[in-house]
Amino acid sequence: MPEVMIPIAGILIKMLIVIGVSQGAVAYLILVERKVAAYAQDRIGPNRCGPFALIQPLADGAKMLLKEDVVPSYVNKPLYILAPIIAIVTATIGFAVVPFGPVGVSAPTLGGYRVDFQIAPYIDIGILYIFAVGSLAVYAVILAGWSSNNKYSFIGGLRSSAQLISYEIPLGLSILGVILISGSLDLNDIINWQDRNGFLFWGIFTQPLGFLIFLVSSFAETNRLPFDLPESEQELIGGFHTEYSAMKFGMFALGEYLHVITVSFLVVILFLGGWDFPFLLDQSQTGLIPALAKTGVILGKVLCVILFMMWIRWTLPRFRYDQLMDLAWKSLIPLSLVNLVATAAILQWIRG
Known about the structure:
About 65% of the residues lie in helices and about 0% in strands. By secondary structure, it is mainly α. It has one domain (about 70-350).
């Protein structure tokens, strides 16, 4: 292979690994959520497809692929087909700037080439990129609700668009405190800053209010209970994807869970120290084994956040829609502004 092609081949290999692992993880996260729901409701859950129901995700995937793909005659077909594609694409491309392990000087080398545990390393505005592509997911919801020509889908699309736009404001404001403290929009720099200063300087300790606001807004941005008003079965049947079936419905579910994984990575990177593990792993440790250990740490933290989100889903009841909007505009946005101003004032006092 020509030497100039090696970096390109490395990026393609990382893309294939991330796409394959993330989509495979979604299949088994659905199984985990079904088991969590079963334990919360004092029942067994899936237990018949293989040992510990490990074949259940394969059966569910085969079911999605083999079901009849019904396209109602009254839908706007081009937009109807485009909506689930947008949902899955916007959820996938956000992983391009997520660091899954060490990047830069602390990354291991293989065959004389540095292996960065990130598809697109050295992007100084990684957090802005994730927020930009994540906000595009609202177009999938709006197009699905409008193109279905169904009143339940249309109301679900209206609800979701208003909810996503509203909660993006506190979601973005809540991370500005972390950005001010670390002095960077690069996710790697934010992790390294927490790593250098110790676990007492993790974002959850330096920005506890920002962490709480970000976590609540994340539930709303991913349409998870208690904020799943766009898909409220008791009111809207299925919300914006009422008219979808087979693999198109599966693409919406896949996109939603990929968003959950992305948000969990952001929680870990911004507020839980990334791959920093107190007294065991730090920035000075290099090589393949420490790199794999750091990747294992960050993935373990992400899994814990996902399990927490599942636990909340099966614990809290759904909000009314007016309560949902009041929480964003009357509580979270003012609190996030107060947190931003207070953080800026304290930093100015310390550094001035």
